[in-house]
Write a structure and sequence with these properties.
Largest sheet: 6 strands, parallel
Strand content: 15-25%
Order of helices and strands: EHEEHEHEHEHEHHEEEEHH
Number of helices: 9
Distance between the termini: 18 Å
Structural class: alpha/beta
Strand order of the largest sheet: 3-2-1-4-5-6
Bound molecules: nicotinamide-adenine-dinucleotide
Helix content: 25-40%
């Protein structure tokens, strides 16, 4: 492992990007090489002495040893992933809201150059994801599973990528497909809840960083597992940890934060 991990932050003027730049600048294990964002924003000060660019490809070519970290939009992240595959740049993606088609394309890119994607980079959520299958199996089918997520008013995708990951983990523990069992809207005279359902509801407002609750609703009892992100720092710290891990990986499959924590816990 290189003593210092060089990073390029794509979407560096955004909420997550700014947090990542601050951390990377202040932690001795990282070197912030370049910040990339949309051209029209680059006039405002980035507050950093590194390269500030609007072209992710130029940043990757200028800093061939760096790992790129993308927190932008699904379309922008797909462009980044295409460039990273072309230039063999390891890429950590935190962006959420990809279509199934875009996810398949990311899997293709990951066969060419190392790519890690996680809809939630926090250690807490990833440990919860690891525990969820065990909990689901131990409680058994008598417990209905419902998921609630809450985020700030500016979040563009719903339900959150994290809620979908939690839903996938619960569904696959019951050998279900989330696509066939997910219930994201209940309105009107809809009848009784089915046995084969996982409800996922999204709340939006204010400046909530991110709350996820998984409920197991059973006979005479409720179990709630809740994760509440107080700041974005957890996500940014996780993304940097992922970048450090990814620099030593070879391409092959799309990695996730689960790969990082499992290796570190083992
Ligand atoms: P934001 O809107 O504050 O920031 C996005 C930034 O990307 C903006 O500065 C925007 O100008 C920039 N951008 C857009 N298109 C670009 C392009 N073509 N080239 C370069 N830059 C471009 O959003 P945010 O709150 O920072 O979130 C970003 C993404 O990260 C969202 O998808 C969000 O859901 C996700 N997110 C993931 C995690 C996680 O742990 N994985 C945590 C928080 C947010």
């Amino acid at each position: 492992m290189n003593a210092i991990t060089k990073v390029i932050i794509i979407g560096g003027y955004g909420r997550m990007g700014k947090m990542l730049c601050d951390l990377a600048r202040n932690e001795s294990a990282f070197e912030l090489c370049a910040v990339v964002d949309r051209k029209e924003l680059l006039d405002s000060a980035s507050g950093c002495e590194c390269d500030v660019m609007s072209d992710a490809g130029e940043a990757m070519r200028t800093h061939p040893e760096a790992v790129a970290i993308d927190f932008t939009t699904p379309d922008a992240a797909m462009d980044t992933a295409g460039l990273a595959a072309l230039l063999s740049t390891p890429l950590v993606i935190g962006t959420t809201g990809f279509s199934e088609e875009q996810k398949s394309k990311l899997e293709e890119f990951a066969r060419v150059s190392p790519v890690l994607w996680s809809a939630n980079m926090s250690i807490g959520v990833n440990v919860l994801l690891d525990l969820l299958p065990r909990l689901t199996k131990a409680l058994g089918p008598a417990y209905d599973i419902e998921i609630m997520e809450m985020h700030h008013r500016r979040k563009k995708d719903a339900p959150s990528g994290t809620a979908l990951m939690l839903g996938e983990a619960a569904a696959s523990s019951r050998s279900w497909s989330l696509g066939q069992t997910r219930r994201s809207c209940r309105d009107g005279l809809i009848g009784e809840r089915g046995d084969r359902e996982i409800g996922i509801q999204a709340l939006r407002g204010g400046d909530v960083v991110g709350i996820h609750s998984v409920y197991f609703l059973g006979p005479g009892e409720i179990i709630e597992i809740r994760h509440q992100a107080e700041t974005r720092e957890n996500f940014a710290q996780g993304a940097l940890r992922a970048a450090r891990w990814l620099q030593d990986q070879t391409p092959g499959r799309l990695y996730s934060m689960q790969d990082v924590i499992r290796e570190e816990i083992a």
